[in-house]
Amino acid sequence: LSLLSFQDLFGVSMVVPLMNLHIKSLGASHTVAGIIGSLYGIMQLFSSTFVGCWSDVVGRQYSLLACILLSALGYFLLGISTTVLLFAISRVPVGIFKHTLSISKALLSDLVSERDRPLVMGRFNAASSVGFILGPVVGGYLTELEDGFYQTSFICASIFLLNAGLVWMLPWSEEKSGSREHQQGNRRTDSFSAKANHDLHLKSATNGAVASDSLFQSPWIQVAAVLRRIKGIACSDLWDIFLVRLLMSVAILLYYSNFSLAMEERFGVKPLFAGYLMSYSSALGVLAGCLLGPITRLYQHNTYRLLLHSSTLTCTLILLYASALSIWMVILSSTFLAFSTTIGRTCIIDLELTIGGNEASGTLLGVGQSVTSVGRIVAPLLSGISQEFSPCGPPSLGVGLALVAILVMNVNKQKYCSRGNVKLKNQ
């Protein structure tokens, strides 16, 4: 699964930086290019919850395969797009079904125990980040060739087909046979404690066995099951976790929104240096993902406390960047911000799954992706408005939003601590 995540973002990051150049070469105006980009974001916003919930209903294997193959179709259409219309059509299957990493994370949460989940998620995110670092370099080289964009798109589609083969080769049959034994055992006894103490990785297996029947059900039955699950999440008490995720996402996006321009206006630094600094931060993010295991052990697997401290550090570092008087303070803040944001992103996912439960992990991760998509829509607007007042406006606004997120976490501290105690007793 880590290899799948690496190849996924490696292929996507080869193509995405070149897309604006390609659509303009097809004769599209800046407005048309912006509309197509916005439509992609809107499709991601609404589809992530439904696709994540669908993976809970029909199982990870079928949903993951469908998302990978339909994403491959989208990038193949992109590779043959010679008109603006075909370019726009190629973004539809990708916008709706490009949720491969979310479903992979849901599968990981099914397979590992709660104690090991931050470590495994951190390594998974690190593998993704490596792909995101290398992809633009390879894509930039390929685009220098004749018909380079088309070749890059076909390579990306081929990578997705390779990922589909990897998913098909995973040992699903062994999981299903194990789940049948698990289900039979549950029929013999109604003891909750026996079920709770059963090996946690069989949760994924149970989903796989149910999926083999659910896949052939009426589409209307599947839709009804999806809507029931979404209603359950909407009526749950997880609003504060999703609010914290939204606020922190917007705060970090505001930090990066005008980074190159602000660096040039404030310190006279060329955009090339700003690009090197962002690549440096991405590389440190990979290192932070690999260090999550020792860090969670240091915090005795208290995800809430780790999230609170990482969010506080993120807020402080954004404030340091906004008030920086020299380029060295910016480098210092970027160095530690790479660690705090990586840790915070992993902790918020772990907290969602811990309180929401693994049984609906696909739905929870899908809703989380929708929340992040809202942040991506709102952040450019807030950045543009605050930038009218000062180059430091966007990060200063980000500090305020991060403080609100920290306040929300402190207000709901009792709920997190009580849930943590229950989790430890079950273990």
TrEMBL record:
<keyword id="KW-1133">Transmembrane helix</keyword>
<keyword id="KW-0812">Transmembrane</keyword>
<feature type="transmembrane region" description="Helical">
    <location>
        <begin position="149"/>
        <end position="170"/>
    </location>
</feature>
<dbReference type="InterPro" id="IPR001958">
    <property type="entry name" value="Tet-R_TetA/multi-R_MdtG-like"/>
</dbReference>
<keyword id="KW-0472">Membrane</keyword>
<protein>
    <submittedName>
        <fullName>MFSD9 protein</fullName>
    </submittedName>
</protein>
<feature type="domain" description="Major facilitator superfamily (MFS) profile">
    <location>
        <begin position="1"/>
        <end position="416"/>
    </location>
</feature>
<feature type="transmembrane region" description="Helical">
    <location>
        <begin position="277"/>
        <end position="299"/>
    </location>
</feature>
<keyword id="KW-0813">Transport</keyword>
<dbReference type="InterPro" id="IPR011701">
    <property type="entry name" value="MFS"/>
</dbReference>
<feature type="transmembrane region" description="Helical">
    <location>
        <begin position="238"/>
        <end position="257"/>
    </location>
</feature>
<dbReference type="Pfam" id="PF07690">
    <property type="entry name" value="MFS_1"/>
</dbReference>
<comment type="similarity">
    <text>Belongs to the major facilitator superfamily.</text>
</comment>
<dbReference type="InterPro" id="IPR036259">
    <property type="entry name" value="MFS_trans_sf"/>
</dbReference>
<dbReference type="InterPro" id="IPR020846">
    <property type="entry name" value="MFS_dom"/>
</dbReference>
<feature type="transmembrane region" description="Helical">
    <location>
        <begin position="62"/>
        <end position="89"/>
    </location>
</feature>
<dbReference type="GO" id="GO:0022857">
    <property type="term" value="F:transmembrane transporter activity"/>
</dbReference>
<feature type="transmembrane region" description="Helical">
    <location>
        <begin position="393"/>
        <end position="411"/>
    </location>
</feature>
<dbReference type="GO" id="GO:0016020">
    <property type="term" value="C:membrane"/>
</dbReference>
<feature type="transmembrane region" description="Helical">
    <location>
        <begin position="306"/>
        <end position="331"/>
    </location>
</feature>
